[in-house]
Amino acid sequence: MSVEAVETEVSYQQPIRRELAHRAAVSEVFVTSLAARAPGRFVAGAQLPRMHAYYGDHLGILAARHDLLAVMETARQTSIAITHEFYRVPLDAGFLVRTFNGTGVPGPAWASGPEPADLVLEAEVLNLHGSGSAVCGIDIVLEIYSAGALLATVDGSFSWLSPERWSGLRTGFRKRRGLGSVVGPVVSTKGTEPAAVGRRDPRNVVVSPVERDADRGIAGLAIDPGHPFLFDHRLDHIPGSALLEAARQTALLLPGGPDYPQLIGIASRFDRFTELDLATECRAEPTGSAAGRVEAHCAIRQGDTTTAELDLAFLDAAAG
Length: 320
What we know:
Thiol Ester Dehydrase, Chain A; 2 domains; 320 residues; alpha+beta
């Protein structure tokens, strides 16, 4: 990656317009610039905050490290902004996330130092979904660099709908589940103790105390629809960001797991909407442990329906 090229393509002076990143709060926009390099290839600048009420709320050594989920959120913002800026997707379109994966590269770049972390995101659109000029989705991969070193690779598959089609989709989906067209009271449980999931702030806890079944852990979701980050704007379902965090926290509650390991990889698939007004649980079970890494599989369940599946990899925080 040429330093001279990056200097001409990337800026860190101010965030991009918040609507491009689907954020209501300007303070939650991490992307600072966008540019097209070639057909299907783009570059973005972004800045990770040194302190953040949600992403920076961790105990122990992880309090001084960047969070993989913050890096993935930056990639999500970049991907959506690319569709608006370069593929003319209307700003009022509703977005569906089908898959969203991130793999971190262990190393010193994860340490939160005395200066903000300026990131360079090199994005490539691998596939366009639709026909002719009617593009309705993309598959995208982003390589994310910090101080010239590869920090993580993130990929995802996204599609979008007009407001009218979104409304019809949601109404039909809820009807098939025996629900009305209007979202009812949020079904939530009492969150577990913050320290049990490596948090200080109780508001950042998204799961209940875990129930153990052999080596599997089952936790109800503790949903706060007023959370200033997870529900930065009004939503009619539980967002993927909350499900990613629920999977991480439930995995941390598994018996015999290491204390507050660093999340270094996550692969997620979202098959259905996760409704706010249905009881929701996360089921986690360990799937492997070797060379300082611990892996777990998580399933988000509502009744007898699985809405999302996630595979996580943790790195021993002290070793990393």
